Amino acid sequence: MPAAFPPPAHGRPPALPNPPDRAGPPRVERGLVQRNLAWARANLFAGPWNTLLTLLVVALLLWTVPALLDWAVFDATLAPADIGLCMERGGACWAMLQDTWRMILFGPYPPAEHWRPALAVGLFALLVVISLVPAMWLTAGRRRLLLAVWPPTLLVLAVLMHGGVAGLPVVETRLWGGLPLTVILASVGIAFAFLLSLVLALGRQSSMPVVRIVCIAYIELMRGVPLITLLLMASILLPLTLPADVTIHPYLRAQLAFILFFAAYMAEAVRGGLQAIPRGQYAAAKAMGLSYWQSMTRVILPQVLRMIIPSMVNIFISAFKDTSLVIVISMLDLLGTAKAATSNPQWWGLFIEPFAFISAIYLVVCSAMSWYSRLLERRYGTAGAHD
Amino acid sequence: MTEQAPPLVRVRGLEKRFGDYRALAGIDLDIARGERLVVCGPSGSGKSTLAYCLNGLEPHDAGRILIDGMPLDEELGTAHELRRSIGMVFQSFNLFPHLSVLENCTLAPRLVLRLGEQEAHRRAMENLERVGIADQAAKRPDRLSGGQQQRVAIARALCMRPRLMLFDEPTSALDPEMVKEVLDVMIELAQSGMTMVCITHEMGFARAAADRIVFMDQGRIIREAPPKTFFGDQQDPRIRRFLADITAG
């Protein structure tokens, strides 16, 4: 165990007797050990407070990491096992995940057809990743290719999920759940909310009073209401207010609530960017004969979007995580299926494992988003900040 | 410049208010085809407002502006149409920072004049060549000095093949050592027969290139005269003070 546990090894250098002498003369020897010691002195033991902080962190790690490792690794139980064995060993019951992971990922989707949502999510992720590579946007040809690939791919994804074509059995949407549902809610929600937010932000600074007032009222209303309330209203109140013969699919109601809610937040981020654009940019675009929409889409918004990457991605991340709130309207997204797994009688009483599993999925997706946002900032962040 | 030809720009009784403030208090002005007009005056005299009204960036409150006989009017929808043929160079350059120098020059010709990519590119390079900055075409504007940026802004306006060029204090945001490179471009442009309205305090430029100098104060034209007469006899104390101020500053 000590070998797999490096932090304490780094914790030793303060015990060395001679750091003060070594700080003065120029270092001649540049061996691996010396370099590491120099690094440690500069970064971990630069002063009394720094040293104290380092020691505190090391103590915290010593206190928590072994217990965590015991639970997750040394006392953990893998299949084949049942809940009795897990309880006996006391650690993580990974056997439960080995048994239920497919149900957590795909929910009530028929098990024989699980390859379809798996393939759909994989295809979607692949296309998103490809589309996010900046080099794919460099030439007009590549941009056209991307735009041409998206619609048929979305159609293929829909066919994969729903079936009814090419011998694929139909799987009704009420059986969709888990990761595909989360991905659909989040990506459709973010995409449409983003488009709506541009309209709202432009409307908010429109010279037409009615448009401006409607946009302001909308944004303030949406920001003033908790998302849960909105979801409950969309799922309970909306059907009551509609004529009896009109029904909106529960998924669509939830999706609509997400779009409407996050569009308001994004609109405020866009508005912040719009206000940071110098008036001269509008004047220059107008003076050259560009129409309102031409100047917005070609001059103003490209600068705004570069500027608001950090706040926008922040909203994207929270939108992705907040899709889990559909659990309050009994939709089985990733959180819903994890919760369902906890009520599996075979594994009754286990909570941490399924939630740890979906946390890992959320963490990976959200970290990827924030990593990508930093990449974009490095690439575009400085342009458009001044004129 | 022939005296018989109708003026390119005819301004009659032009007024512009900002709230209670009368920025323009009745301007009458004719600008002939090919004429080089320098507009000067103390700050707050309304000269920038005049430039912004001449291409409809600011709608005017009273009076008329005729460009080639066509009334410039936001409500008639002619302002947008006429603006394409009026180039404007701003004090703060106002280049589009997210586009390269070349793209700055091709954007409007492609979107507004619907030129093909090659034609727009050719025209942009031609005008960048003319202002001596073709070698910087691939750069972003923020990589360029102020003088270079202003020359790009002039090239960008020229790419629209305007019949009138408005310059709104094109050198006043520049470091002194960069003023000359921009003025040189403007003088070359003036010699090529372009109709120009230059709002500037550069009296050297006015002497060298202007056909007429218009002096404004408090939203009115106080005096119009060719450079020789304007600089020669100065009875008006306001003009004397103005000239003393700018040579002192």
* Radius of gyration of chain A, CA atoms, in whole angstroms: 27 Å
Order of secondary-structure elements of chain B: EEEHEEHEHHHEHEHEEHH
Structural class of chain A: mainly alpha
| Helix residue percentage of chain A | 55-70%
Under the CATH scheme, the architecture of the domain at 1-85 and 205-249 in chain B is 3-Layer(aba) Sandwich
The protein's oligomeric status is: heterodimer
Please report which band the strand proportion of chain B falls in: under 5%, 5-15%, 15-25%, 25-35%, 35-45% or over 45%. Answer: 15-25%
Structural class of chain B: alpha/beta
Shape of chain B: globular
Number of helices of chain A: 17
Largest sheet of chain B: 6 strands, mixed
Q: Determine the mean pLDDT of chain B.
A: 91
Distance between the termini of chain B: 35 Å
Mean pLDDT score of chain A: 85
Number of domains of chain A: 2
List the helices and strands of chain A in order.
Answer: HHHHHHHHHHHHHHHHH
> What is the CATH third-level topology name of the largest domain in chain A?
MetI-like fold
* CATH homologous superfamily title of the domain at 1-85 and 205-249 in chain B: P-loop containing nucleotide triphosphate hydrolases
Strand order, main sheet of chain B: write it out: 6-7-8-3-9-10
In CATH's first tier, which class of the largest domain in chain A applies? Mainly Alpha
Summarize the structure.
The complex is a heterodimer of chains A (387) and B (249). Chain A is mainly alpha-helical and 387 residues long.
Q: Which labels suit this protein?
A:
heterodimer, A: 387 residues, mainly alpha, MetI-like fold, 2 domains, 70% helix, disordered N terminus, disordered C terminus, B: 249 residues, alpha/beta, Rossmann fold, six-stranded mixed beta sheet, four-stranded antiparallel beta sheet, 9 helices, 10 strands, 37% helix, 24% strand, globular
Describe the structure.
The complex is a heterodimer of chains A (387) and B (249). Chain A has helices spanning 7-10, 19-23, 32-43, 48-74, 83-89, 94-106, 115-132, 140-162, 179-204, 209-223, 227-241, 250-276, 279-287, 292-307, 309-322, 334-342, 352-380. Chain A has 387 residues and is mainly α. Chain A has two domains: 7-74, no CATH class; 96-109 and 171-380, Orthogonal Bundle (MetI-like fold), CATH 1.10.3720.10. In chain A, helix 9 runs antiparallel to helix 10. The radius of gyration of chain A is 27 Å and the shape is globular. Chain B has a domain at 1-85 and 205-249: P-loop containing nucleotide triphosphate hydrolases (Rossmann fold, 3-Layer(aba) Sandwich), CATH 3.40.50.300. Chain B is built from nine helices and ten strands. In chain B, the strands form two sheets. In chain B, strands 6-7-8-3-9-10 form a six-stranded mixed beta sheet, with helices on both faces. In chain B, strand 9 and strand 10 form a beta hairpin. Classes of the chains: A mainly alpha (387), B alpha/beta (249). The interface between A and B is medium-sized, with 23 and 26 residues. Chain A: Belongs to the binding-protein-dependent transport system permease family. HisMQ subfamily. Chain A: Pfam families: BPD_transp_1. Chain A: Residues 179-369 form the ABC transmembrane type-1 domain. Chain A: One of its GO terms (molecular function) is transmembrane transporter activity.
